[in-house]
Amino acid sequence: MTEFAIGDVLEGRYRIDHPIARGGMATVYRCVDLRLGRAVAVKVMRDHVANDPASRSRFRREARAMAQLKHPNLVDVYDFSSEEGVSFLVMELITGGTLRELLAERGPMPPHAAAAVMRSVLTGLSVAHDQGMVHRDIKPDNILINTDHQVKVTDFGLVRAMRHDSHTTTEIIGTAAYLSPEQVDGSPISPASDVYSAGIVLFELLTGSVPFSGDTALAHAYQRLSRDVPAPSVRIDGVPPLFDELVATATARRPEDRFAHAGEFLDALEDVVADLQLPRYVVPVPTNSAAHRAASVPTDTSGLFETNVFGSTAATEMLPPTTPPARQESETRVFDAPAPAPAPVPAPAPVPAPAPVPAPAPAPAPAPRPQPAPPVTNRSGLRLSFGLVLAGLAIIAVLIGAWWFGSGRYGEIPPVIGMSSADAVEMVAAAGFEADTSTEYHDDVPRDAVITTDPPSKALPGSLVTVVVSAGKPEVPPIPEGISIDDYRTIAGERTLTVATGDSVYSDSAPSGSIAETTPKPGTVLPVGSTVKVHLSKGPKPITVPELRGVALADARRSLGDAGLRVGEVIEVFDAAVDGDSVVETNPGPGTSLRAGDTVNLVVSTALTIPDVTGLTADDAEQRLEDAGFDVTETVEPGYTGKTEDTVVDTSPAPGERVRPEDTTEVTLILPGAISVPDVTGMTVRDARGLLRDIGLRIDASLFDGDKVIERQLDAPGSALPPGGRVRVIAS
User: Fold this and answer.
1) Which SS3 state, helix, strand or coil, does residue 201 take?
2) Which of 471, 484, 522, 566 has the greatest number of C-beta atoms within 10 Å?
3) Cα–Cα distance between 576 and 55 in angstroms, integer?
4) pLDDT at 467 > cutoff 60
């Protein structure tokens, strides 16, 4: 981008007076219009606009259209130039600042303040929409606030004018955070595109941030193709639902679902203001803005005032009055205000005339001889000239001294807001100052971008100028081991965060009384000035001894270990109600609170439980009992009936009974004294004989009747016979 020095004159008319701001699209200077003698803002575009014929043509077309827009909420365009080498716009000079700078100073706005800003923005934007113009780059940087609190929109059409023919399809033309979906995907642009951008601005006014983010401008821009803008009330408390609806309609992804143009948006805004009965609000002027700092430097009017009083070296001459030549139309001359005329000498008081006395008419008096005027000598001329020179030199000395001891000896600190710290330090050093840096946390200025300078605008040449660089938003600091709450409060305070004490919590790692955790967690990014809750440790969380009665010893050990407790002594006792090798009780008892690593003693039952072997054959039952450690005996009880003569019908002690191991280990198998007769009707005698033999009974039939079928049995099914007894049947 072409750079100009203070004093350079554009097209013989606009003299560079002071730089205001520098951006990616242009550099803005405060200039003096030498023809009209007024201060103006001149925006000098990037080089490719001046060097590319198509860009120059596009710039001229957009500049002419901008110049047609006249409204109090629009920045006036006075003139433009787009010749080979440089392209620039001459605009109304705004000495307040941008909405971006106001947001940086004050943060989110309450609804009535945001409505006041948007009312002016949408009013100005609707004028352009009515004339068929689309802005294409509505954002806080293009919304200016004058010193009379008037909000104005600027830079109509400049995004399109600045577009270069070499842009590719992967480039985003405009500011990613505020682009409409159709600007991202290449769909046709309409006033609804500006409505979307204005809706994003309203969202930012209410919340202090834009709705989407991304690692790159392209990623940021593409967020809006698949995601809706969230309700502002989700980000910050106090936003009425009607404002959520305004933002939702203005930022609908499909243009046809939005307000069609700024006028519709404005009407809806006014309805919301009326429904909520919001008070009127005067938009404040930013105090720490580039325009404000530039305005604090007096406009240099040197060169506008022409005088030769002290410049001539010729002898003093008295010249006859002459008629000044006719002024040429293109000639510019601005004169100082005339010096005040000397006070008039008062006339002497009139003397009363004597009363008239009749007398003859006197003879005419002779005409008086003219007295010769004092001659104008060379000596008197030199004396006058010398006196004037001395007086002039004295005045100049006084003015120079006043200037020097006032502001003259101070140099201008270049505007570096928004630049990277390295570029800003380089520019400040190049301006003749000693540059240093400091950091401050800031919600809106990105990390490593410049917030301001200290001092902000002027300093003695060679003196120290501190470039204040943004550290971005603060993060919740980590918790160093053993740090006290006072020391942590100091660390957090260095990040603009305040510390409050929250509820104490249990912690296995932090000693009691030290910091256990924070809310939010360390590393969380917060707005400047946020509060972090610190939770002190109550030590490890108490562990409650579980109920383990009846639980097998192995399972009890596992349960205590999982809870963080250790098993101490294992004590064996007999308990007729608890199986052997299972827990009878714990010491300390269930429900007791312990610390991790504490010991629990277990009392375990030694009882032996008689296995249930009923229904097994005597041989199988004996084997099972012996495996369990019991001695086995057998007895036949006449009162018992079984399926077979060797089926165990009971034991003594009974199945499931718990016994002391030291008392007895002998179990008696009880075999039946009678056998239950099965149903053999319908069987052949041969088959019935085999069945009865297997269970210890016999059949009362001849061997020769083997193939006969039993029609009826005289000993009914279920009746009991002693072992070896005969079952009587009738076969045919």
Assistant:
1) helix
2) 471
3) 102
4) yes
Separation between Cα atoms, residue 451 and residue 510, nearest integer Å: 39
Q: Is the pLDDT of residue 249 over 70?
A: yes
Dihedral angle computed from the Cα positions of residues 350, 355, 358 and 364, in that order, rounded to the nearest 10 degrees = -10
CA trace torsion 507, 509, 512, 515 (10° rounding): -80
What are the start-end ranges of the H helices in 18-162? 47-51, 53-67, 99-106, 111-130, 158-162
Most confident of 293-307, 411-425, 538-552: 538-552
Which pair of structure tokens corresponds to residue 75? 């920045």
Reading the block at residue 85, the tokens are 């080498």
Question: How does the average pLDDT of the chain come out, rounded?
Answer: 82
Hey, what are 282's tokens?
A: 């005067």
What interhelical angle do 262-276 and 111-130 show, nearest 10?
150
Place of tokens 């010249």: 319
Contact 17, 6 (CB under 8 A): yes
Measure CA 697 to chain center.
Answer: 94
> Considering 33, 137, 155, 715, which one is annotated as catalytic?
137
Cα–Cα–Cα angle for 382, 385, 390, nearest 5°?
Answer: 120
Cα distance between residue 103 and residue 126, in whole Å: 24
CA pair distance 456, 413, nearest whole angstrom: 7
Rg (CA), the chain: 54
Torsions phi, psi of 14, nearest 5?
A: -105, 110
The Cβ of residue 460 has, within 10 Å, a number of other Cβ atoms equal to 13
Listing DSSP states for 238-269 in one string gives T--HHHHHHHHHHT-SSGGGS-SSHHHHHHHH
Q: How far is it, in rounded angstroms, from Cα 517 to Cα 502?
A: 10
Distance CA 620, CA 613 (A): 8
Which DSSP string do the residues of 393-409 spell out, in sequence order?
HHHHHHHHHHHIIIIIT
Gap between the Cα atoms of 720 and 645, Å rounded: 11
137 flagged as catalytic: yes
Phi-psi region of 122 (alpha: psi -120 to 50; beta: other; left: phi over 0): alpha
Which domains, and CATH codes, for the chain? 1-93 (3.30.200.20), 95-161+174-289 (1.10.510.10), 411-470 (3.30.10.20), 475-537 (3.30.10.20), 543-606 (3.30.10.20), 609-676 (3.30.10.20), 678-731 (3.30.10)
- Give the separation between CA 19 and CA 7, rounded to whole angstroms: 11
Per-residue pLDDT tens for 557-583? 999 999 989 999 999 999 988 988 999
Helix and strand numbers (H, E) in the chain are 18, 31
C-alpha to C-alpha distance for 301 and 256, rounded to whole angstroms: 53
Integer Cα distance of 88 and 50 in angstroms: 9
Pick the closest to residue 157 from 56, 52, 64 (CA basis).
Answer: 64
Q: From 440, 203, 314, select the one nearest 212 (Cα to Cα).
A: 203
- How many degrees, rounded to 5, is the angle at CA 645 between CA 716 and CA 732? 35
Cα separations (Å) of 664 from 392, 584, 660, 661, 667? 137, 21, 7, 6, 8
Nearest residue to 609 (alpha-carbon basis) of 667, 555, 548: 667
